[in-house]
Amino acid sequence: MPPTLASLLRTPALKLTVLAGADRLDATVRWVHTSELDDPAPYLEGGELLLTTGLKLDLRPEALSAYVHRLADAGVVGLGFGTGVVHDAVPPELVSAAAERGLPLIDVPRRTPFIALSKAVSAAVAADQYKAVTAGFEAQRDLTRAALAPDATGALLTRLAAHLGGWAALYDASGAVLNAAPDWAHRRAALLTGELDRLRDRPAPSSAAVAGDDRVELQSLGTGRRPRGFLAVGTEARLDTSARYIVHAAVALLTLSLEQSSTLQDAEQRLGAALLRMLLAGEYEHARTVAGRLYGDLLDAPVRVLVVHGAVFDPELTGEPVLAVRDAGRLTVLAAADGAALSACVRLVSGDDTLVAGLSAAVAAPDAATAFGQAERALAVARRRGMSLVEHDAVGSGSVVPLLADDAVRAFADGLLRPLRDHDATSRGDLVASLRAWLSRHGQWDAAAADLGVHRHTLRYRMRRVEEILGRSLDDPDVRMELWLALKTMP
Fold first, then answer.
1. How far apart are CA 490 and CA 479, in angstroms?
2. In degrees, to the nearest 5, what angle opens at C-alpha 285 toward C-alphas 279 and 290?
3. Cβ distance 302 to 362 under 8 Å?
4. Band of the pLDDT at 50, cuts 50, 70, 90?
5. Residue 146 is inside which H or E element, if any?
6. Phi and psi dihedrals of 442, rounded to 5?
7. 258: three-class secondary structure by DSSP
């Protein structure tokens, strides 16, 4: 353990005596420094045991009080006063000032050279550091053995939690809890998923601390632009040097397990792309046979299809199986309908204004081709509306009118209504407005005539002129539909 004032006082060879601040002897001594300056604070970092013979001290009570306050404010953990050199005893005014401020004051007798205290602290610091490094290496060997076990992740987290005397949890890139130890830590880890957002935009590895009933440190895992996963460790107190060695070893091992070889990743992507193409071609049984158990129950549960248009897009998912095909600036993803993988894809698309995507409704895996068609239609709507993401269900529940806002539909509407507009520009009678009123009232003459402020016979005459000019019958429901949509499309 690191040296403290108490451990120095318990060293018989030093023959030290505490004169004030006896209730604060558990303070850790980071170093020993000797100074005869009236104000040594600018040369201190905090955590020192300051030694002095009082050679230049101003012995007035107010001066000694100011001296003690300067030392305490600088973070000095104790003041050692060498007696028998300049002063036969520690000035009582200094003892009073130290007691008032709560600064430990220690009498260092003449037969105890200051260098003896420096050596004692230096040796204790070195021993503590050696112990931390040794414990770290032993823990690293233990964690490495655990990483080679059949349940590598679970075994590693269990050993990590045991070494830290706390708990540990592993998350995938989407923030879903993959594993935790002990078992009760799953609930604690699930409460921290929102905190992971603090690390998502930082290059891995990076870390963040979370304060609460326990102290939690979050570590991102991976070597790429985006983290491939996250590690959380919870302990009662702040991690010491030895514990940090252990956590760093775990981070390295978990990163190795997440960063699979590029050859294996390529093989997995090729297989997933082939399976997805089978599904989109309606060959579900063949895809199911080829997939075997490689993709868990992905092909046995409801799925959704996401089609993304954009030059660069990589979901970097590790927690759940997905099928993906990348082709000419497009990415097609099939994933579990209610899974975290799909949520991660949607979150990445929504946060990148260079991407446009369409998302299907949930379907059974054999109906993947239907879902693909829904996703493509939703993508077309997203591109037309200038939106980053459109879901198929939202298209079905909205209005069809916004879907008509493209050049081809507007050209059709302009061509259909132009003869009526030309008539209104050169002749009496507002045929376009009359047609709009009559259609909006579902062909009710009296209601439409009242809206226009004309007699119903006048409106009947105008509708006959519309039929004559267009060469179409308003009794045909298809004609009425086309005219209504044309009117809704044109300003």
1. 17
2. 80
3. yes
4. very high
5. helix 114-147
6. 55, 35
7. helix
21 close to 98: Cβ distance less than 8 angstroms: yes
In order of 177, 228, 250, the CA distances from 152 in angstroms are 16, 17, 12
> Which residues make Cβ contacts (< 8 Å) with residue 328, sequence separation at least 6?
none
Question: Tokens 């239907």 sit at which residue?
Answer: 370
Least confident segment among 107-111, 141-145, 275-279, 290-294: 290-294
| Number of other residues whose CB lies within 10 A of the CB of residue 486 | 20
pTM over 0.85: no
Question: Residue 480: helix, strand or coil by DSSP?
Answer: helix
Structure tokens at 236: 């009662």
| DSSP-derived 3-state class of residue 335 | strand
Q: DSSP letter string over 356-407?
A: EEEEPPPB-GGGHHHHHHHHHHHHHHHHHHT-SEEEHHHHHHS-SGGGG-SH
Cis peptide bond upstream of 205, omega within 30: yes
- Using the CB atoms, write b or e for 253-287: b if 16+ within 10 Å: bbbebbbeeeeeeeeeeeebbebbebbbeebbeeb
- Token pair listed for 285: 């049984």
Please choose, from the candidates 482, 431, 425, the residue with its C-alpha nearest in 3D space to the C-alpha of residue 458.
431
383 φ, ψ to 5°? -70, -40
- Measured distance CA(85)–CA(110) in Å, rounded: 7
Cβ neighbour number for residue 124 with a 10 Å cutoff: 19
Q: Quick one: which of 32, 33, 81, 31 has its CA closest to 59?
A: 81
Number of other residues whose CB lies within 10 A of the CB of residue 94 = 24
Q: Please write the tens of the pLDDT for every residue from 145-191.
A: 887 777 788 889 999 999 889 999 998 888 888 899 999 999 999 88
Residues forming beta bridges with residue 221, ordered by sequence position: 229
> Residue 126 corresponds to which amino acid?
A
User: What are the pLDDT digits (tens) for 134-153?
Assistant: 776 777 788 888 877 777 88
The burial of 445, by beta-carbon neighbours within 10 Å (0-12 exposed, 13-18 middle, 19 or more buried), is given as middle
DSSP state of 12: G
Question: Residue 332's beta-bridge partner residues?
Answer: 307, 325
Give me the residue label for tokens 């044309």.
Answer: 486
Cis peptide upstream of residue 182 (ω within 30 degrees of 0): yes
Task: Determine contact, residues 85/52, Cβ cutoff 8 Å.
Answer: no
> Cβ contacts of residue 288 below 8 Å, gap of 6+?
299, 365
Tokens coding 146: 């655990």
Q: How many angstroms from the chain centroid is the CA of residue 172?
A: 11
